[in-house]
Automatic annotation (TrEMBL):
InterPro entries reported for this sequence: DC-UbP/UBTD2_N, DC-UbP/UBTD2_N_sf, UBTD1/2
Domain of life assignment: Eukaryota
Residue ranges constituting the DC-UbP/UBTD2 N-terminal domain according to the UniProt record: 13-111
Compositionally biased intervals (Basic and acidic residues): 1-14
High-level lineage: Eukaryota, Viridiplantae, Streptophyta, Embryophyta, Tracheophyta
Pfam families attached to this UniProt entry: UBD
PANTHER family from the UniProt entry: UBIQUITIN DOMAIN CONTAINING 1 PROTEIN-RELATED (PTHR13609)
The organism of origin for this protein: Salvia divinorum (Maria pastora)
Protein name: Ubiquitin domain-containing protein 1-like
Region (Disordered) residue spans: 1-27
């Protein structure tokens, strides 16, 4: 009888936030980071999941947190980790995003 509220908890979307600061294995430039991101988004959809969810996740990573929240909510993305590193779609497919597509490293250097 006291379980009525627990049913909703699983579908509640977590509030999106930027991932914690991270450091790349070696200093990289903004251009190198952009290249890594492009390669990830070009290849990730081929490993499973639905293209429209990958597209929504990409749009969310490139938006501010309020817009990102609206994007994932409208796409039906289930956010496992608030920093978007692990998400699911309503069919249960898992989407893992590396930190480098979500934020910049602390050891980024200026392009020369």
């Amino acid at each position: 009888m006291g379980c009525a509220g627990s049913r909703e908890k699983g579908t509640e979307s977590k509030k999106i936030r930027k991932p914690k600061a991270w450091k790349h294995s070696e200093p990289i430039t903004r251009e190198q980071l952009a290249q890594m991101r492009e390669e990830f988004w070009d290849t990730a959809p081929h490993y499973g999941g639905r293209k429209e969810i990958w597209d929504a996740l990409r749009a969310a990573t490139e938006a501010d947190s309020t817009l990102a929240q609206a994007i994932v909510d409208s796409a039906g993305v289930i956010v496992q980790n608030p920093d978007l590193t692990i998400c699911y779609d309503e069919r249960g497919a898992k989407y893992e995003l590396p930190k480098y597509v979500l934020s910049e490293p602390t050891n980024m250097v200026n392009d020369s």
